[in-house]
């Protein structure tokens, strides 16, 4: 399968949106994306929230050109979902949102062909009024040109 960068980003973010709202039962306004106006600012209050950070890291030619002259380019990157839960509940007492998000990506491939690997949960620690846990997933997809 072949995806453009925009298509791949859309598929990657659709997974976290569904995990956050449908499975996690959270308000979509508490899921923040980088560079989306003031909506990317941290919310206040004592409810969990998350920030989504997507970074493409490398790209390489994966195949030689075929009869039509097209080549496959493999795009790689890292998705980090920073989950912030109210403090004072201990590591085990933090929300299950990190596990829900991890499970949404772990061992999966989107319908368009974005593959996720090495999905981990990293406890970061206290950040102001919240305890931060990062869910980190490596991804890759192909573009044919």
How much helix is in the residues? Answer: 10-25%
Can you identify the CATH class? Alpha Beta
Largest sheet: 5 strands, mixed
End-to-end separation in angstroms reads: 12 Å
Separate helix tally: 2
N-to-C SSE string, H for helix and E for strand:
HEEEHEE
Please state the average pLDDT score: 88
Pairing-aware structural class of the strands and helices?
Answer: alpha+beta
**Count of domains:** 1
**Strand tally:** 5
Quote the beta fraction. Answer: 35-45%
CATH-defined topology: STM4215-like
In terms of per-residue confidence, which ranges show pLDDT below 50 for 5 or more consecutive residues?
none
Fourth-level CATH superfamily = Phage tail protein-like
Give, in spatial order, the strands making up the sheet with the most strands: 1-2-3-5-4
- As a whole number of angstroms, the C-alpha radius of gyration is 17 Å
Coarse morphology: elongated
Reported CATH architecture: 2-Layer Sandwich
Summarize the structure.
The chain has 145 residues and is α+β, with helices and mostly antiparallel strands.
How does this model look, in words?
The protein contains 2 helices and 5 strands. By secondary structure, it is an alpha+beta fold. The chain has a single domain (5-34, 48-61, 71-144), classed as STM4215-like. Strand 4 and strand 5 (130-144) form a beta hairpin.
Features:
145 residues, alpha+beta, STM4215-like, 5-stranded mixed sheet, 2 helices, 5 strands, 19% helix
What does the secondary structure layout of this molecule look like, with pairings?
Elements: H1 5-23, E1 31-33, E2 49-61, E3 72-86, H2 97-105, E4 115-127, E5 130-144
Parallel strand pairs: 1-2
Antiparallel strand pairs: 2-3, 3-5, 4-5
Helix pairs in contact: 1-2
């Amino acid at each position: 399968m072949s995806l453009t960068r925009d298509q791949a980003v859309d598929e990657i973010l659709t997974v976290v949106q569904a995990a956050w709202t449908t499975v996690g039962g959270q308000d979509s306004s508490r899921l923040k994306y980088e560079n989306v106006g003031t909506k990317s600012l941290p919310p206040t209050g004592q409810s969990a929230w998350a920030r989504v950070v997507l970074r493409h890291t490398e790209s390489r030619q994966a195949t030689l050109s075929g009869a039509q002259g097209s080549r496959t380019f493999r795009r790689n990157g890292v998705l980090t979902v920073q989950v912030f839960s109210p403090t004072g509940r201990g590591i085990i007492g933090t929300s299950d949102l990190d596990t829900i998000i991890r499970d949404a990506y772990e061992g999966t491939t989107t319908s368009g062909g974005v593959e996720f690997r090495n999905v981990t949960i990293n406890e970061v620690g206290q950040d102001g009024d919240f305890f931060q846990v990062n869910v980190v997933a490596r991804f890759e997809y192909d573009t044919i040109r």
